[in-house]
Design a protein that fits this description.
- This protein has 15 helices and 18 strands.
- The protein is elongated, with a radius of gyration of 51 Å.
- A hairpin with a 5-residue loop joins strand 14 and strand 15.
- It is of the alpha+beta class.
- Helices cover about 35% and strands about 30% of the residues.
- The N and C termini lie far apart (about 135 Å).
- About 20% of the residues are buried.
């Protein structure tokens, strides 16, 4: 590399009109060339036909990390990665033939080992007699460009492989790009769609949406998850979720919009089926007087439907924990209910229990509760879902039937005693015992009338439920029986 001439050898500053003459001066040309080479952003290197570096500018130092002292005299192959080393003989062979190599894109390596994408222009260096004695090389670092191209390539691949429709349009609503997802969803090819107004996808009742969307885009707004309806090429209506973003130039000016359209028709149909199922379930629960409930273990909160809240005698808007809910139960049933829930979750069996609930007015209600555990992927319990039913009437009916059955059994037993017993006292005692049991009295007795000189009196004949001595101090009854 030529050194700069001494300061005193440089010409004094010339007016602008003399600049062209200075550039043409043979004496000054080397100085101008040296200044240009040193100030260039590109790496400008010269080498022999054996590949030995003979000059190295500041641009080369910035790009490759070596100083001129470290590079000059070394083989240019120190810049070539191992998998590209076979390029150098080919380049030198072409140079010896007098060929110029332009914009050859390859990879080179920095001093720190970083790989760089490089664009090379290599020219033969000739002596005045035309003989080729070396080569000059201009290396431009195109790594940022390559990275940008790679990113754009990845982005383009993502766009093309996306299931969603990805579309761009101008601020006048004219389609400018159309991916494979858009083709699958809407049925138009890119050739059919690009250049057409986006409104070709709008059903008649939705055409007024586009001016509003474009107005928001012009103001720089992003539209997210906007659910609407669009139409396919074959006329099929689709439920669509749209996300629309402004497209900006580097200076921030908005020049268009990118649109991602997701077909949510199946989700909408599934949601409608779910809503219909939920409606039918709620109707069935209401008809059966069943209330549904859910319990979240992490928060301990129990969520009740209106019917369930009514069964427990609390407002449907009241939030309660399972710990608080247990206080609504009869004190004899609380621990039983707690253990039943724990055992159900531990064994993964259904929860099925009957307990008594005390309402604020003091009334007691019997409740049938059924539930099933919910579990995470790791097997831990998340909570429960279930139903409750007020079975107070059933319990009352069951108690009445039990009482009636007991009464019939007692009457039958008395009948058998009467029919088999000849002892009058034993027969009357059996009737007294039966009457006491059937009426639920604490005790029962049977008296009979006796006439003597003092007049009529009552005599105790049989007694049930208490010892005879208990009647020793009773006053004379005035009725035929005392219970």
């Amino acid at each position: 590399m030529s050194k700069e001439p001494p300061r005193e050898e440089l010409p004094e500053d010339n007016p602008q009109k003399d600049l062209a003459a200075d550039l043409k001066s043979p004496e000054l040309a080397p100085y101008w060339l040296s200044a240009i080479i040193e100030s260039a952003d590109d790496a400008i290197i010269s080498k022999t036909l054996e590949g030995i570096i003979t000059s190295w500018n500041k641009g080369a130092e910035r790009i490759f990390g070596y100083t001129a002292d470290e590079a000059i005299g070394k083989s240019v192959t120190m810049l070539i990665p191992a998998d590209h080393i076979d390029e150098e003989p080919t380049i030198l062979a072409r140079l010896r033939m007098g060929q110029r190599i332009e914009h050859y894109e390859t990879v080179r390596v920095r001093k720190d080992g970083t790989l760089l994408d490089i664009s090379l222009t290599v020219s033969p260096i000739r002596r005045p007699d035309g003989k080729i004695v070396g080569a000059s090389k201009v290396a431009r670092n195109i790594t940022p460009r390559k990275q940008s191209e790679l990113a754009q390539g990845h982005l383009a691949a993502i766009v093309e492989s996306a299931d969603d429709a990805i579309i761009s349009k101008t601020l006048e609503g004219i389609i400018t790009s159309w991916n494979k997802g858009a083709e699958r969803i809407f049925g138009y090819t890119a050739e059919e769609a690009i250049g057409q107004p986006i409104t070709m996808l709008f059903p008649a009742g939705y055409i007024d949406e586009e001016p509003q969307i474009l107005a928001r885009i012009r103001s720089g707004q992003r539209i997210e998850h906007y659910e609407t309806v669009r139409v396919r090429k074959d006329g099929t209506l689709l439920d669509i979720s749209l996300t629309i973003s402004p497209i900006r130039k580097p200076d921030g000016e908005i020049i268009g919009a990118s649109k991602i359209a997701r077909d949510i028709s199946e989700q909408r149909r599934a949601q409608r089926r779910l809503d219909e199922s939920a409606t039918r379930l709620n109707l069935a629960l209401a008809a059966a007087r069943l209330g549904d409930w859910s319990w979240n273990i992490s928060t301990d909160v129990v969520t009740l439907s209106e019917t369930a809240a009514s069964i427990f005698g609390i407002p449907s808007t009241l939030n309660m924990t399972w710990t608080q809910m247990r206080q609504l139960l009869h004190e004899d049933d609380r621990e039983h209910a707690r253990l039943a829930v724990e055992q159900s979750l531990a064994s993964r069996d259904d929860y099925d229990i009957e307990y008594r609930v005390l309402h604020a007015d003091g009334s007691e209600h019997w409740v049938l509760a059924r539930g099933r555990g919910l579990y995470a992927d790791d097997g831990s319990a998340l909570g429960m879902l279930g139903v409750v039913q007020d079975i107070t009437n059933r319990k009352t009916t069951e108690e009445t039937l039990r009482t009636q059955t007991e009464a019939l059994r007692t009457i039958n037993e008395v009948g058998q005693v009467i029919s088999a017993e000849l002892d009058l006292h034993k027969m009357v005692q059996a009737v007294t015992d039966a009457a006491t049991e059937l009426t639920g009295a604490s005790f029962g007795s049977f008296f009979y009338n006796v006439l003597n000189e003092a007049g009529a009196s009552y005599m105790l004949y049989t007694l049930s439920g208490v010892p005879r001595q208990a009647f020793a101090h009773f006053p004379m009854p005035r009725a035929t029986d005392l219970f």
